[in-house]
Amino acid sequence: MKRLAIVAALGALALGQPAFAQDGAIEEVDPDAQAMMDEDREEGEMDAEALAMVAAIFTAMFQADPLTPEAEARLPAATSVAASLVPEGVYGEMMGQMMDSFLSPILEMAQSDGGGMSASELTEYTGLYGQDLEGLTAEERIELTRMFDPVYETRTKAQFDMIVGAADAVFAALEPGVRDGLAKAYASRFEAGELDALNAFFATPVGAKYARQSLVINTDPQVISGMMQSIPSLLEQLPVLMASFEDAEAGLPEPRGYDDLTPSEQRRASEILGVDQLALRESMAAADGIEEVMAEVAEDLEIALEQDEETMEEAEEAPESFEEAMEDIGEE
Asked: Could you say which of 171, 206, 229 is where a domain stops?
């Protein structure tokens, strides 16, 4: 009975109500426990308020112009087109297939390597960031994995399944809005006769198949493979893009640090932000340090890309060198 009373007290506190014993007297509740539950409730309320605020901001940011009277008149036909192109459940199906297309090869690769943690995972797990764990053999990584996490493979599979399931749920929630927006877009961009022609086409067997597959086909392994084949070209463009960012700021002064501000500006900034001047100086210095680290990372990435290009060029030249060597041997 005492356990039931405690549960009742906890539930009452969660609802902000006093807890009563069976005889009607108010039960005494541990002040620390009550403080923790009050804090949890406040955090939950703050989270809900934050989510509502974010939703309101996004709604305000992405307001579209109202439809013209002509487009409103075409909306029923456009809604039928949108329903064909985005049938019920297609977004969940599409994203589930896409996640599976991306994640399954990664999972298969991990399993083919014996199912052990990668060097980066071991680094994060052990905290040995100063050690070179890349040099571990597959057998050593598997042995360590079995020590640290005997159910690693099961856990990894569960995480992959969770990610796919979460993607299904998230994009299923987005689907009605996409369908509604697509209907309005078609109503704005297509004439009544064109919408009727589209609906007539979607009523045919091949049209219905096309409409059903028009989104899902983008998750086909052939499409994903084609995208992955383009990654080297994308990587080649990264240095150019990074240089473009630098060129865009050419001639502009660097943002001012705390010590670049006048004393009055320092005081005013501190006042606006609600922190003392020393804390603001330290915080801005720390933020500047993070930017320097990120710049170093970007520079290291650029160097690594250049090295990869050199390695690929050497690999392409290797067969010619081998043939030349064989020719030299033949001449001898």
From this structure: 229
